TrEMBL record:
<feature type="transmembrane region" description="Helical">
    <location>
        <begin position="227"/>
        <end position="246"/>
    </location>
</feature>
<dbReference type="InterPro" id="IPR024078">
    <property type="entry name" value="LmbE-like_dom_sf"/>
</dbReference>
<keyword id="KW-0812">Transmembrane</keyword>
<protein>
    <recommendedName>
        <fullName>N-acetylglucosaminylphosphatidylinositol deacetylase</fullName>
        <ecNumber>3.5.1.89</ecNumber>
    </recommendedName>
</protein>
<dbReference type="GO" id="GO:0006506">
    <property type="term" value="P:GPI anchor biosynthetic process"/>
</dbReference>
<keyword id="KW-0472">Membrane</keyword>
<dbReference type="GO" id="GO:0000225">
    <property type="term" value="F:N-acetylglucosaminylphosphatidylinositol deacetylase activity"/>
</dbReference>
<comment type="similarity">
    <text>Belongs to the PIGL family.</text>
</comment>
<dbReference type="InterPro" id="IPR003737">
    <property type="entry name" value="GlcNAc_PI_deacetylase-related"/>
</dbReference>
<dbReference type="GO" id="GO:0005783">
    <property type="term" value="C:endoplasmic reticulum"/>
</dbReference>
<dbReference type="GO" id="GO:0016020">
    <property type="term" value="C:membrane"/>
</dbReference>
<keyword id="KW-1133">Transmembrane helix</keyword>
<dbReference type="Pfam" id="PF02585">
    <property type="entry name" value="PIG-L"/>
</dbReference>
Length: 263
């Protein structure tokens, strides 16, 4: 009996801790998004906006932030560029992103290919052009692992790093990167939430049930990509439910060895 009481008290305290962490995280997210109402999401391929960033996209739109999307390729890996461009625009419509706020880059030096490293200077120039054109306050994209390790994802982080190191952002503009996690955590679905709350982060976005359904509906627009394993991804990937971001400055400190790897 005493053991049951101890377990009960432990569970209650753990739940209380998670509630407090969630409240703090929600307050931090509110403060950040209120102070940075114009956001640029930089992705590598059509479907990235659903597979990796849906909780964030939907949270930004729920808070009435102005969201601009820059997709740096047409997804032409299997010569389906025109199909995938249309799929992306349909997906954005389902998510609530205005088509006029979506830019799709079709450039021969930016092919959809996991074995080809993109021209970082070109990526940097494209990003900075959009930051200036849309008066961006907040830039979002992948971190140095690119979630899946895809070379095109990593190239965007390298451009973010170049912008950070050379101080090329406008005053007050922040750069946040989506936190890559280990394979086990990546496919732990909502079980990942306690770890996400406990781990340091600048921004956490959690999809509500209605938002998760909306993200699924948006992903269904990418019919050319719906192979059997994608269904498993939609069910089990933490990125369909929760996004955590950290600042480029923290990543650079970690890469320099000043902060231990927190993955």
């Amino acid at each position: 009996m005493p053991g049951v009481v101890v377990v009960f008290v432990f569970v209650v305290l753990l739940l209380l801790l998670l509630v407090l962490l969630w409240a703090r995280s929600a307050r931090t997210a509110h403060d950040l998004l209120v102070s940075t109402p114009r956001t640029l999401l930089v992705t590598a391929h059509p479907d990235d906006e659903c597979m990796f960033f849906a909780p964030t996209v939907l949270e930004l739109l729920r808070r009435r932030c102005s969201l601009f999307m820059l997709c740096l390729s047409t997804g032409n890996y299997r010569n389906e560029a025109e199909v995938r461009k249309k799929e992306l625009l349909r997906s954005c419509h389902v998510l609530g992103v205005s088509p006029s706020n979506v830019t799709i880059i079709d450039h021969r030096e930016l092919p959809d290919n996991p074995t080809i490293s993109w021209n970082v200077q070109l990526v940097t120039d494209l990003i900075l052009r959009h930051v200036k054109e849309h008066r961006i306050d907040l830039m979002l994209s992948f971190d140095q692992w690119g979630v899946s390790g895809h070379a095109n994802h990593v190239a965007i982080y390298q451009a973010f790093r170049y912008i950070y190191v050379h101080k090329l952002t406008p005053p007050g503009c922040r750069m946040l990167c989506l936190h890559s996690v280990t394979l086990l955590r990546k496919y732990s679905s909502l079980l990942e939430l306690p770890l996400a709350l406990l781990q340091p982060h600048v921004l956490l976005c959690l999809a509500r049930c209605s938002q998760y359904r909306q993200a699924l509906k948006a992903m269904m627009c990418h019919r050319s990509q719906m192979l059997w394993f994608r269904w498993l991804y939609l069910l089990f990937s933490r990125y369909m439910f929760v996004n955590t971001f950290w600042d480029v400055s923290k990543i650079e400190l970690e890469l320099c060895g000043a902060i231990p790897d927190s993955r």
